[in-house]
Design a protein that fits this description.
The protein is α+β, with helices and mostly antiparallel strands. It folds into two domains: 8-91, Arc Repressor Mutant, subunit A (Orthogonal Bundle); 111-208, SCP2 sterol-binding domain (Nonspecific Lipid-transfer Protein, Chain A, 2-Layer Sandwich), CATH 3.30.1050.10. It has helices at 14-22, 27-34, 41-47, 53-65, 87-90, 93-105, 117-127, 174-182, 187-190, 201-208, and strands spanning 69-73, 81-85, 136-142, 145-152, 155-160, 168-171, 196-198. Helix 6 packs across helix 7. The chain is globular and about 55 Å long. The N and C termini lie far apart (41 Å).
Length: 217
């Protein structure tokens, strides 16, 4: 698809220019799924099951042409194709962060709808109260995916993969985990049937208390 074939606002406004690049439906959600590292085509579709293979292929092509992501064909023995954000794609994190924070203030959010593992981790990254964060290391096992979250005063870091030495271990479905993290109920109640939790209960409670769906700043 050439630049001439793509829909454009045909404005000199730089916001309109940005939307020309990332404003198509699903484009920012593709970026969301790649913010925590490169993914295969199938893994991207698993995180966005409402997106057809044809539309995903088109969005990947569009974002590649815009310089937001790149394709990597790994040699043998892997022989797989990965999609990875460029520096320009990584720079979209503040946009997604502020969309998370803004969206949390707007009525109509239905938390019962599908939440991908990457979406939950990024929402936690956006909503964490870093000013109150203590030194915690937590593993989240969400179906076939796992993440390690580390916090410290003023800091939050999330990476793919499970650190078996982490003091806090969470496991469960993504939507159930979102309820456990964001709901006002105590973690001890969530750990009775909603999710599995292992670790010091007081530290686990202090950790989940860092997250709320409303931010004052």
């Amino acid at each position: 698809m050439t630049k001439e074939d793509r829909r454009s606002y045909d404005e000199g406004c730089i916001a309109a220019h940005a939307l020309d690049l990332i404003g198509d439906r699903w484009a920012l959600l593709v970026v969301r799924e790649l913010l925590l590292g490169p993914r295969r085509f199938g893994a991207l579709r698993a995180g966005m099951p409402g997106l057809s293979a044809n539309v995903l292929t088109q969005r990947l092509e569009d974002l590649s042409m815009a310089g937001i992501l790149r394709r990597e064909d790994l040699p043998a023995p892997e022989q797989v194709t990965l999609y990875r954000l460029t520096a320009a794609g990584e720079a979209l994190w503040p946009v997604i962060r502020e969309l998370c924070r803004w969206g949390a203030t707007m009525p109509g959010h239905d938390a019962r709808l599908l939440i991908s593992p990457a979406a939950l981790m990024l929402s936690m990254r956006a909503m964490c109260d870093r000013d109150r964060a203590g030194p915690h290391r937590a593993v989240f096992r969400l179906g076939r995916e796992a993440f390690t979250v580390e916090t410290a005063p003023g800091a939050f870091r999330v990476t793919r993969g499970a650190d078996p030495a982490a003091g806090l271990q969470f496991e469960g479905g993504t939507n159930a985990m979102a309820r456990a993290v964001y709901a006002p109920q105590p973690l001890a109640d969530s750990a009775r049937g909603l999710i599995a939790f292992a670790g010091d209960p007081a530290e686990g409670q202090a950790f989940v208390d860092l997250f709320a769906l409303r931010r004052d700043s």
